[in-house]
Fold Acyl-coenzyme A oxidase.
Amino acid sequence: NDTSMQHRNLNHMTREERFSEAMRRTLYALKVLLPREGWTPVGPEMKYLARAIKEFTFIIHAGVFIPCIMSYGTNEQIAKWFPLAADFRIIGTYAQTELGHGSFLRGLETIATYDRANQEFIINCPKITAMKWWPGDMGKSANHVLLMAELVIDGKKYGMHGFMVQIRDLTTHEPLPGVTVGDIGAKLSFESVDNGFLYLQNVRIPRENLLSKLSEVHPDGTYIKKGNQRLMYGSMVRVRVNLIAHEIVMPLAKACTIAVRYSAVRRQGLINPSKEEVPVLDYVAQQHKLLPQVATVFMAHFAAKQLVKMHHDYSLEVEKGNTSQLPELHALSAGMKACLSEQGAAGAEIVRRACGGHGYSCGSGLPFIVNRMLATCTYEGENTVMQLQCARYLIKCADQAKKDKLTGSVWYLSDFSNMSCTAQTFGDLQEPSVLVKLHERRAKCAVQHAGKKMQNMVKNGTPAHDAWNMMATLLINAARAHIMQYVVGTSVTYISELSCSASLKKILTQLCALYALHNINSNCGDFVKFGCLTSAQCDLAQEAEFNLLKQLRPDAVGIVDSFDFTDDILQSCLGAYDGNVYERLFEWAKQAPMNKTEVHQDSYQYLQPYLHEGRDVLEGRGRNSKL
Ligand SMILES: CCCCCCCC/C=C\CCCCCCCCCCC/C=C/C(=O)SCCNC(=O)CCNC(=O)[C@H](O)C(C)(C)COP(=O)(O)OP(=O)(O)OC[C@H]1O[C@@H](n2cnc3c(N)ncnc32)[C@H](O)[C@@H]1OP(=O)(O)O
Ligand SMILES: Cc1cc2nc3c(=O)[nH]c(=O)nc-3n(C[C@H](O)[C@H](O)[C@H](O)COP(=O)(O)OP(=O)(O)OC[C@H]3O[C@@H](n4cnc5c(N)ncnc54)[C@H](O)[C@@H]3O)c2cc1C
């Protein structure tokens, strides 16, 4: 209810206005919402932040830069930089990606050379491809970067390390000497974020600015490793774990709220010719577009909660020096981020398109969501690269399963029990336990199939790296299958253990079954190819899905209302709680800058000669000219 936090009409703002407005809101919110003692907003504040996050800036500062200080800094470095960052007295970003490299980190070219005489690192981007490119908040806001660069001592390379580098003066905000920095220009989304470029030439930083939790350089240039170097990749694991809730589940829930509410209001066409026009939500085709996406929101939310818990438990173990869970967590976080962002971004577009012409209007709030979700498929690990990382782990586990009993998320790879499906009715295929088994079997077969193909190629003389490259599509499918079985399995467990009313549990169970069946029906080739289902059972799976659409239709609006988004957060003429779609669209359009005047002067200036000639012809004075 604080007018300072009420959304402005962002669609009618320029990019610079949106950048400034996001800055204003974020810093105002900081003052009002967050307890000064640090970064732990609790209760309604965190709920508000998580829901309004799209309109804040400094997300990289808050969601990546600060956590990196905690992960990579020594206690002294945390004590120095965390309080400054937590109170926004320094603004930072995570500068890793370069113009020439984003996915292949061993190809990064920015160099930090140790200068023993002065006990400093000299930072250089040796060529244009080494320039840092993309980091959020870097173009105009950040005055520090957590720079990921190749450490070099006496000509020897030690790999990527994290360095704290100040890039702007804390008083004037001007770039420091040797620093060329700016905004990378317009993008598909994140209009309010100043993703930036950063060119560093002979920038000197103190030896103490190497974040030294995992390794350090002594004054004489001696290099000391202090832990599992793969922890250097730890920030990316954490962001992948966190972004699922914030950037996939939340936006998809908003898109579904808008599309389902609009579909309950929008009347178009007839089902029974003798009756009146129906709400488009009564069309099974519309239900088939919307309700599986609503189910995805819940299942991704449940699976993400499990992943966050796993990351939390892992972090506690790492503090005790035990990093044994890292390979599984890396594979799962990489796979979940890739597969759920792929599903979420596709799902947001499906529900946008289901709103017809008004879904194409920015007044619906949907284009903003769709475009922003598309970025989740690229940042924090491009999806293909992430799926291949997940597959790399699965192939290793499949080999190990031949001699060991596996545990954790890959346990099913060593399950050699009879997994054939005995379903005779579509009701059998709505059973959670049957759906879990089907997904486990499909995943196991997909992993084994990819592995076998590669083994056969290698046996026939193909080098392992070529076999890997040629089977990449099968490996990606195996990663997707693995994640789907994880999402279905964790959701079934989560719902079964949830203490809630029987009616709510029934709805959640139906949504889980709908998610699983939609996945089966969208990938039935795999389920038949791997002998999980017969062709007749595939027909039953379709019947089972359609039956669930019918059962869930009456509760569709109530289910999305339970996401509890305010109109101000949704920013949608189609999804407002009161359902006054047409009045809101007209009011919104009238506010467009184009409608500030009845006659648009610039266009009239160009049109005037033609209009006057047309007037003359119509009034009999002129002749019909050929344009
Ligand atoms: C009022 C105030 C309001 C403020 C805001 C509100 C409050 C907000 C608060 C909180 C919100 C937080 C929510 C977060 C939301 C985020 C929003 C979106 C932000 C977007 C930001 C984007 C940032 C970026 O994009 S950063 C850059 C990301 N880049 C990447 O991910 C690069 C991907 N590439 C790689 O990781 C690597 O190159 C590679 C893994 C592909 C290959 O690496 P390589 O060394 O070549 O390794 P490889 O040979 O393949 O494997 C070697 C072994 O290493 C293992 N391994 C690889 N990676 C990892 C890892 N990450 N962890 C562990 N182990 C790893 C791999 O498995 C191999 O092991 P093996 O045993 O040899 O098989
Ligand atoms: C909105 C947004 C915000 C971002 N924020 C940040 C940030 O704050 N900090 C930061 O450091 N970076 C940031 N990034 C950069 C982001 O991390 C990179 O864009 C991402 O890692 C992908 O790398 P790339 O752009 O080099 O793509 P590439 O790796 O060049 O990908 C291009 C194509 O090559 C394919 N490909 C690449 N490698 C392989 C492989 N091994 N096998 C098969 N196919 C492959 C990919 O699948 C893709 O199809 C951001 C990007 C975006 C879009």
Q: What stands out?
A: Residues 26, 29-30, 33-34, 49, 53, 56, 58-60, 62-64, 94, 96-97, 103-106, 136, 230, 233, 236-237, 239, 242-243, 246-247, 326-327, 330, 379-381, 385, 389, 392 surround LCNEECSX (ligand 1) (CB under 6 Å). Residues 284-319 form the longest helix (36 residues).
